[in-house]
Specification:
Length: 175
């Protein structure tokens, strides 16, 4: 039996990195103000680490959605796998050519595209979908702020969040 309301627990879990970062900042400030020498220097390091953790946590918290959506996402060995009730699939992160956000369905979906295969649609609230933040943030040239803004704005039509740069210029393609 839990003594914490489910809504409060969900909010703490969503903002957990920010809360830990704030805790590190407070401990660092306490050490700087209350002690001198080596402990003050360590307090400064804690403040910097806590600030970095809070910043990253803030972005992750904005990305996370309530779980319980259809399907399960797994990220393992450089692959994203989605097991859904009506479909699913696997895409290697290295083979990903385009990432889009499609808000026309219920719930909103990430659309992962690769050459020669049908796109994989992953609900933004699927179990394990919070692991996608690290994968998406590591894509070369992806603007995290743009991704989070589009996720919040819920555009009326699908929007491309990231697209791999083509090695062949558009005007030189045969097809």
């Amino acid at each position: 039996m839990s003594f914490v309301r489910p809504e409060a627990r969900a909010m703490v879990l969503r903002w957990r990195e920010v809360l830990c970062g704030a805790g590190l900042i407070l401990i660092g400030l306490w050490w700087i103000l209350g002690a001198g020498g080596l402990l003050a220097w360590v307090g400064g390091v804690l403040i910097l680490g806590g600030a970095a953790l809070a910043l990253i946590g803030f972005q992750r918290a904005r990305f996370r959605r309530q779980g319980g959506g259809p399907g399960v996402v797994q990220v393992d060995e450089g692959q994203i796998t989605y097991f859904g009730p009506l479909g699913g699939g696997t895409v290697a992160i290295a083979d990903l050519t385009r990432l889009s956000l499609d808000t026309r369905g219920m719930p909103d979906h990430w659309m992962l595209e690769q050459n020669g295969a049908a796109p994989i649609l992953i609900p933004v609230n699927a179990e394990g979908s919070d692991a996608l933040f690290d994968v998406f943030a590591a894509l070369p040239g992806l603007r995290t702020a743009h991704m989070l803004a589009q996720l919040r704005a819920r555009p009326a039509c699908p929007v491309v969040i990231w697209q791999r740069a083509s090695p062949v210029p558009e005007h030189q393609r045969l097809h």
